[in-house]
Amino acid sequence: MATSIAAPQTAAHAVLTDPRGLVLLVNPAYKKRWHLPGGYVHEGELPSAGVAREVREELAITPRLPSTPSVIAWAPHAGDRLLMYYAAKLTSHQARDVRISGNEIIGFRWCDQHALDQWLHPTVGERVRLTLQASRRGQTLYTEPGRTLEI
Q: pLDDT tens for residues 85-143?
């Protein structure tokens, strides 16, 4: 009897806030909606290193990111994906230094947390809110369709 074992793609995203609490969103050239900085983790790369690399490549900044994600999400739709969300507060200097780097990102904006669903897919907006809450509490949350657990 043959079974299919999930071999998920792993992606890591940064939920970056400025000193006012606004969330940094990016406009990827290859997506229809705004998103968060980050992307797929390379084979053999730690997710924490992958998110740091992606932020550096996309935005030309090197914020202090935690080694542990605040949210881990299982996304079984459109292929199995394991998504990790890392929260970090930028200094005012880092927030001013954000620059689009490369061809992948065509714009960025600062977004009030109450307006996230206007710019992001609602599921991503919910993960951003969970990430910020978990980060404030020093938690890591695991979420999948229909449930969220503290781990």
A: 999 999 999 999 999 977 899 999 999 999 999 999 999 999 999 999 999 999 999 99
CA dist list (Å): 3 to 6, 34, 67 = 10, 37, 34
pLDDT tens per residue across span 17-28? 999 999 999 999
CATH classification of 11-150 is 3.90.79.10, yes or no?
A: yes
Nearest to 65 by CA among 43, 48, 41: 48
Q: Contact, 35 vs 26, CB < 8 A? A: yes
Number of alpha helices (DSSP H) and beta strands (DSSP E) in the chain: 4, 8
Give the amino acid at 122. Answer: P
Measured in residues, the chain has a length of 151
Q: Do the Cβ atoms of 101 and 57 come closer than 8 Å? A: yes
